[in-house]
Design a protein that fits this description.
Chain lengths: 397, 397
């Protein structure tokens, strides 16, 4: 049978990143491509103890159907943590446990978007979110991302110029892929503009707790007097991603509709992973565990930046992240980093070309993304050195 | 902010069943409403041992990001089991691990349906599937379900009379809610008609392994020479539902597109539950575990049928399932079982009125569904007795 796919899905292809990830599974390959957290810190022994106890003592809780909203004590604990860490505490909000942070974005897209509606995004942005919007046939309008976030004036112009601009999707803290953090002033201006025009903000903050330099900046959700912000969070980068446990904190009406969509999608998030995330926080000190991750990522990030500074051609600029997992590099006009990525694959070094993160993925792009969280120190140095010498040859020409 | 929801989601409400389930949590309530498997047989101690070992010895495998397609050894094992148990073994098919069987249905709907396309369904049918199709603004065309399945002639007429009839959704074995099994003859006729008209069949078979009486009937997927059948299965009813591990076996082109949609939806199914489902099958005898479930359900089903036969008014007819979890009762024209359900709630007995499973949920319906898998023997007897005396009063009037 020749399948005719729906208009919204017909053009969708798998993430180019995930194809590169398949290469990255080869132990001979130095992968600066992934977005995986460092596995050496996973609290696997603590989780083993909890899992065993729960399955023996709480068989019904851990193995029977649960409610779509998520395990109630985990929702409560997440609410408390958001209040304490991020100043997010509106009585008009509710929390939905999601199967990873990604599911929250997809559920909002399904609940809000008709085909042809506009979603405004930072450019570059997270491909998982861009594809979620594309998969409902949304029109994407990109705003160039600056070192301190998107320009609020361009945001307002984009809202006015695009038909049915319903959502602004933004990663204000340690952006993926750029590693940048939006300034407090811009966050406030962005919030005001979206409130004025009735645009829903999706604030995606999977990396917010991974700050290793600089000062905390208030989340946009903490400013949300009008109830226009849906805040997507995740335990993937602070406990473990394979568990697939995330959450969305948003106004009750939106959470209610998302809960209906989730019931249709996967009924509820797997119970055992939810219970592991809850019990780990109750029995151990999540903050001190996160601190170990921060220390590791600070070390790895600084190592990568130092190596870049000594190996890359001077004409290649890059961001200096204060947290998160990524460095964003710019070769300047006239280069196509997808060709360079192919060149580097032959030398067993992989990274992600910038076009992956753009609204128009087919246009040549002079940016590329590097990740420092997964590889050993030796491989970070060696990978950046190989990349640097390749770039020098290309820039010379 | 007043949220304006997408056209496809605006009218969607939570499943009425799940509201009834909330009542069912009260220990004073006798719930014949749920669809939960019997928790007393969950292999929790075996799973505890496996979980503990995996988390200690395989931290990266169990906690790092996995691939969207699912854990490769579990896909392979599922393929082998399908070949052995169901004669499903086309080289043109592939397997996607899903977050419960429900996700497979939702992914197919997203990949295939444009708004307004027709999905043909048995009437009554599983509300989770009906809602998945509704949530993409599909038009539902119902075909009355007979004791041996839908009438193939009506199926062909329905395909011809409805615009863009793209999918037939069918639960041929131990149907939810009706408990009926489609005959081999009708399965063959249904397959031929769908092949002739290029209609994709979703064969949903979560209960197929729970046969406790009668003889096995070949799956429609086992007849699938043309590659028109997507077979959705689940480990929910044969290991444990809270794990949320299911699968879809379908032609490679469809699985490829579903994989893209799943990557956008939840990246991948949680690793630990996938590993538990795989290792349980490798280390223990799944078939003998399923046999225990069959024996339990045979006992409970016969107990319920015997009690119904002695307590219900003669004018109320019912199905005699040979497997699965449900009995479907018919009061005959002129009754509205949603009113009777409300009456019974006052007497602490809950069941699901038939309207829940119909294309038009607002029309009065003279059917209702009873479940026998969850309650103790005493509660099954007491619940059916209370329900019987209530029905006798109503029928008398």
């Amino acid at each position: 049978m020749d399948f005719v796919f729906s208009d919204k899905m017909a053009k969708m292809k798998g993430s180019a990143i995930r194809e590169i990830f398949k290469l990255a599974g080869d132990p001979n390959v130095i992968s600066l491509a992934g977005g995986n957290p460092a596995p050496e810190l996973f609290p696997n022994k603590e989780l083993a103890k909890i899992a065993s106890e729960l399955l023996v003592n709480e068989p019904v809780l851990s193995l029977q159907y649960g409610v779509t909203e998520g395990y109630a004590p985990l929702r409560e604990l997440t609410k408390e943590r958001l209040a304490k860490k991020e100043g997010i505490s509106s009585p008009d909000d509710d929390i939905l446990i999601t199967t990873g942070g990604q599911q929250g974005i997809e559920l909002i897209a399904k609940c809000i978007l008709n085909e042809g509606d506009t979603v405004i995004v930072e450019e570059p942005s997270f491909i998982g979110a861009l594809n979620a919007f594309r998969s409902f046939n949304a029109h994407l309008a990109g705003i160039p991302l600056e070192d301190d976030g998107i320009d609020p004036q361009i945001l307002e112009k984009t809202i006015l110029e695009n038909k049915n601009a319903k959502i602004l999707y933004i990663i204000p803290t340690f952006q993926n892929p750029a590693g940048t953090t939006t300034s407090l002033e811009k966050r406030m201006a962005i919030y005001d503009i979206c409130a004025k025009h009735g645009v829903l903000i999706i604030e995606d903050n999977p990396y917010g707790e991974l700050r290793f330099d600089g000062e905390h900046v208030a989340t946009i959700k903490s400013m949300d007097k009008e109830g226009i912000v849906a805040y997507c969070g995740s335990f993937s980068k602070i406990i473990a991603p394979g568990l697939r446990v995330g959450f969305c904190c948003a106004p009750k009406a939106l959470i209610g509709k998302m809960t209906v969509a989730k019931q249709i999608g996967d009924v509820h998030t797997s119970m055992l992973p939810q219970l592991l995330v809850y019990e780990f926080q109750k029995r151990y000190d999540l903050d001190s565990y996160i601190q170990k991750n921060r220390d590791l990522y600070r070390h790895k990030c600084h190592l990568m930046l130092d190596t870049i500074d000594s190996c890359f051609p001077e004409s290649v600029s890059h961001t200096r992240p204060q947290g998160g997992l990524f460095v964003w590099c710019d070769m300047g006009e006239g280069y196509d980093t997808s060709l360079i990525a192919k060149e580097c694959v032959k030398k067993n070094v992989v990274f992600v070309p910038g076009s992956t993160f753009m609204v128009d993925m087919d246009k040549p792009c002079h940016y590329f993304r590097l990740n420092y969280s997964t590889m050993s120190d030796e491989k970070i140095i060696k990978g950046v050195e190989i990349l640097g010498s390749t770039l020098k040859e290309i820039v010379k020409k």
